[in-house]
Amino acid sequence: MKFLAFGLIYFHFCILNRCEYITSSTIQKCYNSSNEPNNCSQKAVIVLSLENGQIANTEQVVATLNQLSDSGVNKQLQNSFIFEVTKSPVTALFPLIYLQDFNSQPLEQVIATTLFSCKDGFYDSSPTCKFQYDSKGQKILDSQGYCCYCSLSDILGMGNDLSRGKVCYALNLGAGSATAHCLKFSPLWYSAFKIQQYQLYFEVNINIYTVDSQNQKNLKQTLKLSTSNPTMKSSDNSTISKIIGTFTPTQPPADLSSYYLVKPSFPATDPRVLQGISSWMFVDKTMFTLDGTQCNKIGVSYSGFRQQSSSCSQPVGSCLQNQLENLYQSDLILLSQNKQPKYLLESQGNFNQVQFQGQTILQQGLSGSASTLITIEIDAAQIKFVTNLGIGCISQCSINNFESHSGNGKLVALVQNQGNYSAEFVLGFNCSSNVQPIQGQKLFLTANQLYNFNCSVSVNSDISAINNNCTINLYDAIGNQLDSKNILFNTTSTNHTSNQGNNTGQQQSSQEYKSSQSCSDKCSSFWSFWCYFSAGCIKEAFKSIASIAGVASALALVIFLAKNGYLVPIIRFLCCCCCKSKKKENEKNKDKTDKKSIQESCSYDRSCCSHSISQSYQVENKNKYKRSKIQRSFSSESCQDKSKKIINELSNLEETFEANKLYANIDKNSSIFEYFGFKKSFTFILYERNDILFLPQNSTILDMIGALQPQKGSYLAQKFLEIVNKNALKVVSTSPLYLLIE
Asked: How many domains does one find in the chain?
């Protein structure tokens, strides 16, 4: 077995004309196969770490074999080998599986009609909305829409509920008393795709050159590695190249497992279809209804529209919210405000559509580090590793002012390679403590290339801050700082909002959703007995008919009573009974209060009545009804006669004192004489304590008080005034009215 002796292996790091050499070692490798047992040869193994996005000549491996040792004799080789290795950008490939098509914007058409002409039955020959037919010419179930009718209360002018798409007028049975509601679809349709698990993909190209004695470089062959073909061998078996593995990207691909990809598909001439990938969207799976039975979801069908709960008491379009057109337009508004969209592809990263192995693939370009290890096994003696160190600068950089936690902060920087070679650069970031760390980025720029770098910026605090700062540093491939810029920016405090009330923390009442439709859900009005019949709700239909018959009978009875003159007397009788009952109760309560007030407030010492003699007598109601016992105690006949006289005179006011009941009694503990009169026009109460008569204040008594002044008061008041003057009663107080017996 022969062993080949190697010289030193050199790695060259070249910046223009300046080079730096680092020594390396070699290894021995033996291959044992059944064809050539114990066939060992000396191999030089080069292990390279290739970064994401490297371009031609950014990283170059030059291997030169210049001498061998054979039986202790060193021999110089005339030809050498050169290997150039490049790596394509790392991308994530998302296979797509077609799901189904969805309309961009379903619309509701409202047709005004009458109670008797609106038709929505499946077996109607010509329903108001017309039938839609499938590709086989069969009627599509529920494509005939549905009808909404003005209820009986609306026709009678008593309805106040929301009516879908119609304005109901009293006594209107013609046009406008019913409406037909039809589901129509807009011309634009989207195709939806399931998104499969991503796979990382990149390619590594290895160019093998031979260099002759005239130092001419000739391409010998090219090896092309990829994630699909990780191992390749040269045609002369002198070189073997392998992909060992790829490190997990520092910025991994987006997680799209909970989304569908939707893209405008037809008509092909639609402007949005022609826009291409810029109008594609990622939409959460929960926003779709695949069977079309759910309202306010993408994919709502004729059945979902027609069978919606309480349809005729909902606003027009209530079942057709949150459609693809709504999502697209909302993102356009966000973009116009320089905000991040929610559904367009750029909300998740940088995406493109590619055809890969005959399959439609969604491709996402990855930024950040994604190193790949490869090995190249060669029969070489000396290896040079060349890395171009670029000269660059940061020409512009800025961070916009933004709201904390809004996700709208953005850093923009222009980086230029000022050298004559393609080179690797590194951007590093050092920001103030309240700014979330920004991940460093590796850039691979061609000669004199100007690159626009941007990334998101966020802060950790909810409160506003002035003069936040970030420093951007530009380094070359081995960490030499080439340029540095400092950026100042401001943030405003987080604007807290809530959809559950006017302010954060407010709560609205919870809503309960039914999983199945009841009869009341199917028919919007209790009076729509024809709706109950059509829905199979027989019991509710008969209840509705009985209620309508009851209301009609009551109306007929009222009309009959009014026509024959019975209605007004009945109403007066009922009102009179009600008012009397309430009036008696109020007077009883008021009497007790007035009586107590007199007992507490009256302080007169004069007395024409004492408690030494007790006598009983009766006063007969002049209007023929009842007798009541009056128990009085008097010390003199004149006091008794005078009080009795006053009572009789008050009772003789026949014009107004048409009492149904008169009674009087004496409270033995307080010596209060009470005179009650229950009249049609007012309640009259007269108290006597010692020598004071009291009349509770009301409208009639006020009228009497007014009669104490000349030329004022009603007829009743004038009569009352005559009694006051005739019996020489002295007015002590007018509010309430106190009369003193002289």
From this structure: 5
